[in-house]
Amino acid sequence: MRFIEEIVVEEFLPTFRSMLAEELRERGFTQREVADALGISQSAVSKYAHGEVSRNDLFLEDDRVRELVERVAEGLSTGDMTPVQALVEAEVLVRRLEEGDLLATLHEEQMPALAEYDGALSVHDPDSTLRTAERVRSSVRRGLRTLTNASGFAGLIPNVGSNLAECLPEADDIEDVAAIPGRIFDVKGKATVPSDPEFGVSEHVASVLLSARAAGRDVHGAVNVRYDPDLVDALEAAGYDTLEFDPDAPEDPIVAALEGRDDLTDTFVLYQTGAYGIEAITYVLGPDAPTVARAVRTLLTD
Predict the structure, then answer these.
(1) CATH for 139-301?
(2) pTM for this predicted structure
(3) Which PROSITE patterns is this protein grouped with (predicted)?
(4) Under a CB-based contact definition with an 8 Å cutoff, are residues 282 and 226 in contact?
C-alpha cells in the first residue's frame, strides 16, 4: 500500500522546494532567509544548493510547477505574498496534480490497481475561501506599494486618513472587505501604514465600496484621497469619469448618485465637497486595489 501523500513528500516536495530555494537565492535571499521562508533548516537549503537532493524531472519540466515557483518567489521577495498564501497556492497545485494529473499518474504506476478506477478524490477545493481571501490581501499589498512608493502621495491624504480596500468576489458586508487597520496617515510628509491588510477593519472606504456594488457597479477596489477641484479635473483629464454626490442625501448618497449611471468607466471617481462636520473627500473605485492605486498615482506624475 502506497499513499499518494508519500509521493508528494518524497518526490514533489524536494523538487519544488529546491526549485523555490534556487529562485529565492537568485533574488538575493541569504541561506538563512531561504530557510525561514521555506520553514526548513539551513542544512537542507545547503543540500538543495549543492544538488544533494534527488529531483523528479516530471515536476522540474512542468510549466505549472515552474510558473508557481516563479510567482511564489516573486511574491515572497516583494512581500506581496505571505508564507500562508504561498502554502495555500502550493497545496492547491498539489491537489490539482493529484486529480488525474502528474501525481495521479505516478501513483498509478506504483499502485497499478488504481488505474482500474475512474475519477479522483477532491481533497482540497481550489476555490477555497482561504485562497481567495489571501489573494485579495495580496492585491491590497500591491496597490499599497504603488501608493507609498509614489513621491508625494502623503500630500493627497485627507485629515481623516486614507485607506485602500478590496473586497471578495461576492462581498456584501464590511467583513468581506480587506483594508488597512487604522488607515494611512501623513506623518511629517510620509505616508504611514500601521499594519498589514485585514478584513473587517474599514467602515469608511468599505461602506463606499459596498454601496457602489449595491448600486450595480462591478467594482472590487476603492481608495480615498483629499478633495480638490484640480485633483478631480486631473482625474477626469486622465480618462476617468467623475461624479459628485451629496453626503447629506436622505438615502444612501452613493447609491443615489450612481442610480441609472451605467455609462461610467470601469474605474471612476466619486467626490463630495463637504458638509457640516464632514470633510470633503474624493474616492476612486475600480476593478481592484492596484488599479485604483495606479489611478491615484497619475495625480503625482502629471
Answers:
(1) 3.40.225.10
(2) 0.77
(3) HTH_CROC1
(4) yes
